[in-house]
Please model this.
Amino acid sequence: MPFRPSKVILPATREEASESLEALGGGAVIIAGGTMLFRLRDSGLLDHVEALVDLSRLGLSYVRGDAVVAIGSYTPLSDVYRWIASDPRRGRALGALADAIMSMPGWQIRNMATVGGSASIGMPQSDIATSLLALGARARISGPSGERVVDLRDYMAAPLSPSLGSGEFLSELVIEQPIGASAHEKFVVSDIDHPIASASAHLALADDGSVASARIALGGGLRRSVVLESPRALVGRVPDEGVLEEIQGLARDSVDPLDDFVASAEYRRHLAGVMARRAVARAYARAGGSAR
Ligand SMILES: Cc1cc2nc3c(=O)[nH]c(=O)nc-3n(C[C@H](O)[C@H](O)[C@H](O)COP(=O)(O)OP(=O)(O)OC[C@H]3O[C@@H](n4cnc5c(N)ncnc54)[C@H](O)[C@@H]3O)c2cc1C
Model:
């Protein structure tokens, strides 16, 4: 039977949400902005779904915090962008997330799509997820036995199949210590498609302008996202052309790219390196560093 859910459930509390999800099991799917569900409606993947569970009455739309930033899972990406853009320090530290949001095709999608929906699709193609991985985001999960917090990497277990137990849902994304600067880069074939390669980089600089710590996330057309934690090629060094060349090679060798009619694996591998190099260079410039 085609995707034609007969019920929309709007729980008023987290407990009700968990009870509904537990009771409906695989017959229910959470709907946030609905932009991915809409895209998938004719794919056959949702044909078993009888009920949509809409968590919009649970108060999960907010961005707050300074030393620790908490983003409610139902927050539209446009609200996240405005919050980041309203403060230059946030613009530097969370620049990768702001870049990723602005790289999406148009405000209609930014107004509908949520940060939680973007993390829950579990796809390396998501620019939002790639930027959150570089920012070291963690996922707060609510469920029948309370809350637990896991690395976003672990939450994004498989496409459209986040790591959730019965009755659980993503309630919040948490970014600890948003310091330093970050940036996101992507390569697209057409403006309304997801990237065939993307990279986000987050850097913290030492007083002498060298890189004190770094995290680079690689996404786009890959079998799985890749996170490079403080690569030796970068830490303790100033990212001049030689260092950027090494980062490009490291990223190129770290990915497991798709190979299809859109782009060959070889081309995607090359682009992974180029995107990583550009993301590091832009994050470094945003942090106020100068390699010259
Ligand atoms: C034309 C178009 C172009 C796009 N281009 C880009 C792009 O270039 N880059 C980019 O990053 N994104 C892009 N997107 C957005 C992206 O593809 C997803 O559609 C979007 O991120 C999903 O967010 P949503 O809130 O609409 O989620 P939904 O479609 O509502 O849900 C997506 C999935 O997440 C699950 N889910 C949602 N919320 C929760 C929760 N709280 N807990 C557990 N599971 C949950 C749902 O059950 C579903 O499986 C584009 C979308 C469109 C329509």
Summary: Residues 265-286 form the longest helix (22 residues). The chain has a mean pLDDT of 94.
